[in-house]
Design goal:
The complex is a heterodimer of chains A (160) and B (646). Chain A is of the alpha+beta class and 160 residues long. Chain A has helices at residues 2-10, 36-42, 95-99, 103-112; strands at residues 16-19, 53-56, 61-67, 70-76, 82-89, 122-125, 130-136, 139-145. Chain A has one domain (2-151). In chain A, a hairpin with a 2-residue loop joins strand 3 and strand 4 (70-76). Chain A starts with a helix and ends in a 15-residue tail after the last strand. In chain A, 45% of the residues are buried. In chain B, a hairpin with a 2-residue loop joins strand 41 (635-636) and strand 42 (639-640). In chain B, the strands form seven sheets. A seven-stranded mixed beta sheet of chain B has the order 37-36-33-34-39-35-38. Chain B has seven helices and 43 strands. Classes of the chains: A alpha+beta (160), B mainly beta (646). Chains A and B meet through helix 1, strand 7 and strand 8 of A and strand 23 and strand 34 of B.
């Protein structure tokens, strides 16, 4: 099943696969993928359990890394700006470091979002950022993106 | 002994002297036995000269006095001896004589001397009914017989009639039985108890099922009978079967009868009985849901669970408003509703705690404790559960998030019963890695991540049941378009091992992905609108959640997240097993949630909402269906779990 979806995923145009040598690399929504060193200080580097794998597509590059039992995929535009983050795994990751400057906007929007019992998915939307969570035990999923930063020609549903 | 002395060359030691004294005593004893006592017995002649007649009648375990006289007619004194008493049908001692318990000892008798004394004897259990002479025997060759015989009498309780059972019933049902017990023996019967059984063979054999309820029978004189009616209850765990009803006299075996093999009688007709120990009622927004937690919570399936202190069968409480969740595994209950005391689970003396996140970002935090859990009318299982308690220690980051479940009102339930495809809840990742984000050990308020062996993780409690452990069946009735206020269904434990959980011929199983080398997410595949999506079935999701279509606009802000098409939209998706087969289409409808939710109804067949990356088949899929949830690594007639079948 997973393979089938991956094939679909790759249909968007796999160009090249490289292994980055940056230990504990982590970028933040809206910031440059080059700012990994400062991000490492924000995060506990020990939590990052593997080196990121980057996969380049036609309009963006995906950096994937393991983080506390969760796989995080960061979507960077050709200019190197992270416009979206997706994850899946045992837990939803701590969004505060991942959202960077968007974190407080997210918290404000979350506070205004009424909890709906039983829906088992969540969408929090503010002016500049959208956070969605879904999934189930053993595979919680979600994504966060800044609509304004999504490069031309990229469908939001490619962030997954 | 002599050689010892010869070989001993040193001075005589104290222990050596002791040995010699002992040896001398033994020699003396042998000499006395052979020369003295032996000769005395040889010359003594013990003769029974009289024995009293026994009573005219007695019974098994009956006691009476015997008086006998024994005389030494020999020339020498008789050493001490014992007189024993027998029942004999012939009047002489033979192999069929029955030794009575009770004997008398006689001190040495001088020549010509007699001994006469009364003794109490008891008729042993198992003595056959009959006429017996009483023998008094100082030894096997000199018995004396009574002149009169004793009649040993015994009652014989026989069931002479039993009413027929109803044609069919379920475990837990009660019905009336009328039966007659008669004493067909020649002795009086003391009070006895008649009990009742189901037997597929018509006789009380190892497979007979004891029914709850019994009848007390008074003492019955020979020939007397007792007829009465009693209500009996079929145990919940009575296996599916076609049974005769048995009534069995003196079933606790308190009466010594002449014949214990004729106590039961079978009914002339049979009853078809159905197993029900594995049934838990479900109410969707019904009586098992608490009003305090259920407002604004459509499609909420509630069950009730009994929680006991570990090992206890009396320190128990039954808790309603437990959300039935086939999308997770493990039982989690709020501290606020628990009154029984549970035992903290530890790792290296540190308290074990757990953080469970759900798809919507809500989370349950709290300690893992051992409890006795009763599901339906199954036997209690001893199982670690999570006590939801946001004040326990310091919740870790994943459980400090957006919606920590701090109270039943906040969460929308008193607890959550995870009976999904996984066992245990987390699996191999939590067994291998301490930074799994789910399991923690707490020392005081400090909680840190820990790896937990699979056997210590919170299990799917169904997997621990002795019999019905391979999965669950969720049966919910359909509702009309527009919804219902509430509906009642049932959760059946086990798959394919009873009549009530056996799949019908048309049921198809869809395997979920459970390959740890790849992923073990427990998902299958749903193709919707041309897009393949990870998917799963989940009674803990109250709608159908999937990527929006242009024909499915979202609702206004109040019901944001739900679909609000202007009219009912007919849709279809195709489900596929994780391996690519089987494949089957599912038709469904999506209505306008603004208008549906404005009604007084709470259970809806046609509500859904936007979810970008999956197809979550929640409660609407289950309404009007029987859905089978196969637990990983457990087999049933539908295959080996994990799977969903419908």
């Amino acid at each position: 099943m997973k393979k089938k979806l991956l094939v679909l995923f790759f249909c968007f145009g796999l160009l090249v696969l490289v292994f980055l040598g940056v230990r504990g690399a982590r970028a933040t929504l809206g910031e440059s993928v080059d700012s990994v060193e400062s991000d490492r200080k924000t995060l506990s580097a020990a939590k990052v359990t593997s080196n990121p794998i980057s996969t380049a597509y036609a309009n963006y590059t995906v950096y994937q890394l393991e983080y506390d039992g969760t796989t995080v995929r960061e979507y960077a535009s050709p200019s190197g700006i992270v416009f979206g983050i997706a994850w899946n795994g045992l837990v939803h990751p701590d969004l505060t470091p991942l959202l960077g400057s968007y974190a407080s906007e997210y918290q404000g929007a979350l506070a205004r979002t009424v909890r709906k019992h039983g829906e088992r998915h969540l969408r929090v939307e503010s002016d500049h950022v959208v956070i969605e969570k879904w999934g189930h035990m053993r595979n919680l999923r979600g994504r966060a993106y800044a609509p304004d930063l999504i490069p031309a020609g990229v469908n939001v549903d490619e962030i997954k | 002994m002599k050689s010892n002395r010869i070989r001993f060359n040193g001075p005589l030691r104290r222990d050596r002297i002791t040995i010699n004294v002992v040896n001398a005593f033994i020699l003396l004893s042998i000499a006395l036995l052979t020369l003295g006592f032996g000769r005395a017995n040889a010359q003594a002649d013990l003769v029974e000269t009289s024995v009293s007649n026994p009573p005219a009648t007695t019974i098994e375990k009956g006691r009476f006095w015997v008086t006998d006289t024994v005389k030494n007619e020999g020339a020498d004194p008789a050493s001490p001896f014992v007189i024993q008493y027998y029942f004999s049908a012939t009047g002489s001692k033979d192999t069929s004589s029955i030794l009575l318990s009770g004997e008398r000892s006689v001190a040495s008798l001088n020549p010509g001397q007699s001994s006469r004394r009364p003794t109490i004897v008891t008729v042993p259990l198992g003595t056959p009914v009959g006429q017996y002479y009483l023998l008094a025997c100082p030894d096997d060759n000199s018995c004396i017989s009574s002149t009169k015989t004793v009649q040993l009498t015994a009652p014989d309780l026989v069931e002479t009639s039993v009413s027929d059972p109803p044609a069919s019933a379920f475990g837990g049902d009660s019905f009336s039985v009328t039966d007659t017990v008669q004493n067909q023996g020649n002795g009086s019967a003391t009070a006895s108890i008649t009990r009742y059984y189901f037997s597929s063979t018509g006789v009380k054999d190892n497979g007979a099922v004891l029914l709850t309820g019994s009848r007390s029978i008074p003492a019955l004189a020979p020939g007397a009978a007792s007829k009465g009616t009693v209500t009996v209850k079929i145990p919940f765990n009575t296996p599916d079967g076609i049974y005769y009803l048995l009534a069995c006299a003196d079933d606790t075996d308190k009466v010594a009868e002449s014949n214990d093999t004729n106590n039961c009688i079978g009914s002339s007709t049979q009853i078809t009985s159905y197993y029900t120990a594995n049934v838990l009622p479900i109410t969707v927004n019904g009586s098992l849901c608490s009003a305090a937690t259920s407002s604004s919570y459509p499609n909420k399936p509630c069950v009730s669970v009994t929680v006991c202190s570990p090992g206890s069968t009396t320190d128990c409480q039954t808790i309603d408003d437990i959300l039935l969740d086939t999308g997770s595994s493990g039982l989690r209950i709020f501290k606020q509703v628990l009154t029984v005391s549970l035992t903290q689970e530890t790792i290296d003396s540190n308290a074990l705690a757990e953080c469970i996140q759900y798809g919507d970002g809500s989370s349950d935090w709290g300690p893992v404790k051992m409890a006795g859990i009763i599901l339906g009318n199954e036997p209690a299982v001893q199982v670690p559960i999570q006590v939801i308690n946001q004040t326990f220690g310091t919740p870790p980051e994943p459980c400090q998030g957006q919606y920590p479940d701090t109270s039943p009102a906040e969460a929308g339930f008193n607890g959550i019963l995870g009976v999904g495809i996984f066992n245990p809840d987390c699996g191999s990742e939590c067994a291998s890695y301490s930074d799994n984000g789910m399991y923690y050990i707490c020392n005081g308020r400090i909680c840190t991540g820990t790896a937990v062996p699979l056997s210590s993780q919170v299990p799917n409690p169904v997997a621990l049941l002795p019999r019905d452990n391979n999965g669950v069946v969720v049966q919910l009735p359909g509702v009309p378009t527009g919804g219902s206020i509430s509906v009642n269904g049932q959760l059946l434990l086990g798959i394919g091992n009873h009549s009530n959980n056996t799949p019908s011929a048309g049921v198809t199983a869809y395997a979920a992905d459970d390959n740890p080398a790849d992923d073990n997410y427990g998902e299958f595949l749903t193709t919707f609108n041309g897009t393949p999506l990870y998917s799963f079935l989940d009674t803990g999701s109250n709608g159908l959640f999937f990527p929006a279509l242009s024909s499915l606009p979202g609702c206004g802000s109040y019901n944001s997240g739900w679909f609000c098409p202007s009219s009912l939209v007919n849709l279809s998706a195709t489900n596929e097993g994780a391996s690519g087969s089987p494949s089957g289409a599912v038709s469904f409808q999506i209505g306008n949630c603004d208008s549906l939710f404005s009604s007084s109804n709470m259970v809806f067949l046609d509500i859904g909402g936007d979810c970008p990356g999956e197809f979550d088949w929640g409660i609407p899929f289950h309404l009007g269906r029987t859905v089978y949830v196969g637990i990983e690594n457990q087999s049933s007639t539908l295959g080996t779990g994990p799977y969903w079948a419908y």
